[in-house]
Write a structure and sequence with these properties.
Blueprint (H helix, E strand, L loop, with lengths): L14 H16 L5 H31 L4 H4 L9 H11 L5 H13 L1
Helix pairs in contact: 2-5
């Protein structure tokens, strides 16, 4: 199997996964199986997961640029037809890390603190 035949990594969670979870959880709430405290706990878990996804997104942005992707290629992923959104994000990231390896080291350190 050549490197071109190797499936690329996928995001660990998809929009479909989230929608399925949301529908199941909403049904549990409607059935009275979850109370306010349960929902507050879920909210905290979701906020931490959201931050982790944002960190992973930042890593992928840095890595894509390192691999030669242009801002014009990246821009549609940000939902805009122009390059300001990824450019601004890169500028902010570069205040903390110059490359994806440094960003990953920062994330590892955050995990241990």
């Amino acid at each position: 199997m050549s490197i071109d035949d190797t499936p690329r990594p996928r995001a660990p969670i998809t929009e479909a996964d989230v929608l399925t979870w949301l529908e199941t959880t909403a049904a549990a709430v409607q059935a009275g199986e979850l109370n306010a405290n349960d929902l507050i706990d879920l909210l905290g878990e979701l906020r931490r997961a959201s931050a982790a996804c944002a960190d992973a997104s930042d890593w992928a942005l840095l890595a894509a640029r390192e691999e030669g992707a242009s801002l014009r290629q990246i821009a549609p992923v940000f939902g805009k037809g122009y390059v300001r959104a990824p450019a601004a994000r890169l500028e902010k990231l570069h205040r903390q890390a110059q490359n994806s390896g440094q960003w990953l080291a920062i994330l590892r350190h955050k995990q241990t603190v």
